[in-house]
Amino acid sequence: MKEFELINRYFKGRGIIRRDVNLGIGDDCALVTVPENCQLAVTTDTLVAGVHFFDDISPRALGHRALAVNLSDLAAMGAEPTWISVGLTLPEANVEWLEEFTEGMNEIAEYFNVQIIGGDTTQGPLTITICAKGIVPQGKALRRSGAKVGDWIYVTGPLGDAGVAIEARKQGFNIAPEHLSYLNNRFDYPAPRVAAGQVLRGAASAAIDISDGLLADLGHILALSQVSAVINVDKVPVSDAVNASIPRAEQFDYILNYGDDYELLFTVPESNKSMVDMKLRQYGVEASCIGQIKNGVGEIELLLDGEKFNYQGKGFQHFTKEPV
């Protein structure tokens, strides 16, 4: 199959068609209309075989995952997802693989009312690059730089699931089938917290999605907000599957250091705390308060059962050999 045959068969005319797309796939550029009094939020992520996903991942899960991690960035800004562009590098144009991959991508795109409006295809090592766009009311985007001393620190859901799934595949942990299925699903099919992000607009002071680990991503908020934090490690939510599969003493690397959970980490002023709890519950999100913003610049104090907890992990970074 040649390049333009591939585009016409698997991308052009598939999925939802939004009314704000004036010109989609098929020209040199797409044309879209940004609503009045809104800003355009744009994010780009690249997924590389052997770095961001296992070689044996199903194409459907890969299609879902590639889009989900970008939608999670939009969620962290409180944006409504609207359009995506797809850059796809393939070793070969495998028809069965493409059918399943685009099905996975279209499923999540349709769920969040997102239209694929363009991109590029080329031959080479398997790599997927997504550029996702969204809209947010003028001046209402959530940012990393707004946390203030006294704000409470929240996460939208359990941490460590993806990390345990990754290590289970690498090391062959003995995990009960029902727990392993749940953990693998959390890694392969992440659920971006899009609705929660929009609820937090105007209520949260800062936000980020957890892609590189709790400590690493909290560090970004602290650096840009010029504050410090105290985290109660025992308050960080952990799934039943992790609790049943990993001894407590071995869970800390997963809940503090591993990324890929794509939950939102956010800060809330005391005055908005009750309102945020109530509104998130209306969307089925039981957010957990795990700490508080303190004076200082960039320091993270960890407490475990009320006592100081010494932990040296740093989270994930590309282009470094530092231990995590």
Automatic annotation (TrEMBL):
- Source organism per UniProt: Pseudoalteromonas lipolytica
Function of the molecule: Catalyzes the ATP-dependent phosphorylation of thiamine-monophosphate (TMP) to form thiamine-pyrophosphate (TPP), the active form of vitamin B1.
Q: Which domain of life is it from?
A: Bacteria
Binding of Mg(2+) 5 occurs at D212
Query: Pathway it acts in?
Result: Cofactor biosynthesis; thiamine diphosphate biosynthesis; thiamine diphosphate from thiamine phosphate: step 1/1
Q: Which residues bind ATP?
A: G119, D120, R144, S211
Q: What else is known?
A: Reaction mechanism of ThiL seems to utilize a direct, inline transfer of the gamma-phosphate of ATP to TMP rather than a phosphorylated enzyme intermediate.
Q: Which InterPro entries match?
A: PurM-like_C_dom, PurM-like_C_sf, PurM-like_N, PurM-like_N_sf, ThiL-like
The Enzyme Commission number assigned here is: 2.7.4.16
Query: Per UniProt, where does Mg(2+) 4 bind?
Result: D28, T43, D73
Question: What is the name listed in the Swiss-Prot or TrEMBL entry for this protein?
Answer: Thiamine-monophosphate kinase
Q: What class of enzyme is it?
A: transferase
> What residues bind Mg(2+) 2, as annotated?
D45, D73
Family, as annotated: Belongs to the thiamine-monophosphate kinase family.
Residue ranges of the PurM-like N-terminal domain?
26-136
Residues noted as binding Mg(2+) 3 in the record, renumbered to the chain: D28, D73, D209
Per its record, the protein catalyses: thiamine phosphate + ATP = thiamine diphosphate + ADP
Q: Where is the PurM-like C-terminal domain?
A: 148-296
Residues engaged in binding Mg(2+) 1: T44, D45, D120
Q: Which UniProt keywords apply?
A: ATP-binding, Kinase, Magnesium, Metal-binding, Nucleotide-binding, Thiamine biosynthesis, Transferase
Q: Where does substrate bind?
A: H52, D260, F316
**MF term (GO), any:** kinase activity
